[in-house]
Design goal:
The protein is mainly α and 99 residues long. Helices cover 83% and strands 0% of the residues.
């Protein structure tokens, strides 16, 4: 979700994915790893552990959709970016407890 500073990156020539490919492509690229992680978590653990690991990843996908629907507003970007470590930690903790 390196979309937050897209205007500055584009002006200064910083070669980020959003600057090179545009917001829509960058958004799609950010969804693919989340969907893959959710699928792996769902398939490699018990049902309860899978649910515990998948819901935080689902929250990240939901936030990414919210960002896209809000046309990348600064508020939505800040929420998605600043809460990502929390959701990833929740998913990682659930998977570690399952093993």
């Amino acid at each position: 979700m390196d979309i937050k500073d897209l205007p500055g990156d584009a002006l200064t020539g910083v070669p980020t994915i959003p600057a090179a490919l545009g917001r829509a492509s960058a958004w799609l690229i950010s969804i693919v790893p989340l969907a893959t992680a959710a699928a792996v978590a769902a398939s490699t653990a018990t049902a309860s552990a899978a649910a515990a690991a998948v819901w935080p990843l689902g929250m990240m996908v939901a936030l990414a959709v919210y960002v896209r629907m809000s046309e990348y507003s600064p508020r939505s970007l800040a929420l998605a970016i600043e809460s990502a470590p929390l959701w990833l930690a929740c998913a990682a903790t659930a998977l570690m407890r399952a093993s």
